[in-house]
Design goal:
single chain, 12 helices, about 70% helix, globular
């Protein structure tokens, strides 16, 4: 099991290396995309500064807590889209029969699919998240926890995208459903969970796993809790395994478009 995990990790890192090399052929565009994404994210700090000037506490969060929330949401998004960009485009690949080229490769089909592309601007999201952390809650423990939760959050976000994207194996125009659910999850993750009540909050900790992706990790960073840490780890492992199960089950229903293409 450990050998398989090690080999798949090597495949992921190699795919990232070659994707990055391809994107860096135009270095000016590469650097510009990253810098502008950092600046774009930074503009939201002004919004929250204005809100906290009017009210010192929003949903149980102080301004530094919200900034960490924003930072983790950005770095999580960044990690997922840097390493697993195509996980967020699975619906399109299924609907348009673009999985053919991956079926003949001597590696796991799902790993091959989700690591076949990268989003350069997402590097800006990842960097931005760590900049925020270093500004508002800099400590060795916080950096370690933030890095760890960036990885777990990125894996949860990726797995969730795979699951909802795989709906297209069974549902016509499943891309509409997956698009809306992904958008909701990303948008909601930038707001304190204290503003959500009742069934909405229950959904955010279950059907839309924002709670385990962002909210609970932020709480662990603010006030360390070993039980919550283990819950996050267990959930991450569970949803990743579920993503593989759902995708592989759906793949049996896949119909080729006879699209001839090659992966290099």
């Amino acid at each position: 099991m450990l050998t398989v995990a090690k080999n798949q990790t090597k495949v992921i890192l190699l795919a990232f290396k070659y994707n990055l090399m391809r994107e860096m052929t135009n270095q000016v565009t590469f650097i510009t995309n990253i810098l502008f994404m950092i600046l774009n994210n930074a503009t939201f700090i002004i919004q929250w500064m204005v809100l906290f000037h009017l009210k010192s506490n929003i949903g149980g969060y102080e301004i530094n807590d919200v900034l960490v929330l924003w930072g983790l949401a950005a770095s999580t998004y960044g990690f997922s889209h840097i390493f697993f960009q195509k996980a967020h485009e699975i619906s399109d690949l299924i609907i348009n029969g673009k999985l053919d080229a991956f079926l003949v490769q001597p590696k796991n089909v799902l790993i091959g699919v989700i690591t076949s592309g990268t989003n350069v601007s997402a590097i800006g999201d990842l960097v931005y998240g760590f900049i925020i952390l270093l500004i508002v809650k800099c400590s060795i423990l916080n950096v370690i926890l933030f890095t760890f939760f960036t990885i777990t959050g990125g894996l949860i976000l990726t797995a969730f995208s795979i699951i909802i994207g795989s709906l297209s194996f069974w549902i016509v125009r499943g891309d509409i459903i997956s698009g809306h659910l992904s958008g909701i999850m990303i948008n909601v993750s930038t707001y304190p969970d204290g503003i959500f009540k009742g069934i909405v909050k229950l959904i955010l900790y279950s059907l839309l796993p924002v709670g385990l992706t962002i909210y609970m990790p932020v709480k662990v960073i603010i006030e360390f809790n070993i039980i919550q840490l283990f819950i996050i780890i267990a959930f991450t492992i569970g949803i990743v395994l579920l993503a593989f199960l759902v995708f592989n089950k759906g793949l049996k229903r896949y119909s080729s478009s006879n699209l001839m293409s090659a992966r290099i």
